Amino acid sequence: MSVMEQADIQALLPHRYPFLLVDRVLELDPDRRIVGIKNVTINEPFFQGHFPGRPVMPGVLIIEAMAQVGGLLAFKSMGQAAKPVVYLTGIDGAKFRKPVVPGDRLRFEIDVVKKRAPFWKMQGKAFVEGELVCEAEVTAMVTEEKA
How far apart are CA 94 and CA 140, in angstroms? Predict the structure, then answer.
């Protein structure tokens, strides 16, 4: 059972296809932790050129998906009072341990390391079938949308 489905995710994140990289949220503990899913399919537009005949999901897009899941955590932690905007401000210690290919199901586990407004520091890990494929510490700035 999901905590957030696609319509809920689109209501919070400004991203849209082909750049919306979160399909579902399975767990959410505001201010602490979130678990999100990205189903990797062969029809993703980046596979046309990365790489023909041997499709591999670009590492930067794995990090972007991780950041989007972290953004959902920040939005849900703030409540609905404001219209927040999240900007990725840093990536530290990124490691890619195994290629992600079509048919994989990425499971992102994001934990808050530190939160001091407007900055959030989160530790993210991405798994495929229980095996760690990527990890990074991401920092984001959460502000209110300006008219």
Answer: 15
Asked whether 51 and 94 are in contact (CB, 8 A), the reply is no
For residue 105, the surrounding DSSP H or E stretch is strand 105-116
8-23 pLDDT tens trace: 999 999 999 999 999 9
Q: 79-108, pLDDT tens digit by residue? A: 765 677 889 999 999 999 999 999 999 999
> DSSP string of 21-74?
---EEEEEETTTEEEEEEE--TT-GGGGTS-TTS----HHHHHHHHHHHHHHHH
Q: How far apart are CA 18 and CA 58, in angstroms?
A: 14
Instruction: Evaluate whether 136 touches 76 at the Cβ level (below 8 Å).
Output: no
Structure tokens at 111: 């934990």
Output Rg (C-alpha) for the chain, integer angstroms. 15
Please tell me whether residue 94 adopts helix, strand or coil conformation: strand
Cβ(69)–Cβ(108) under 8 Å? yes
The residues that are catalytic are 50
Is residue 41 within 8 A of residue 23, CB to CB? The reply is: no
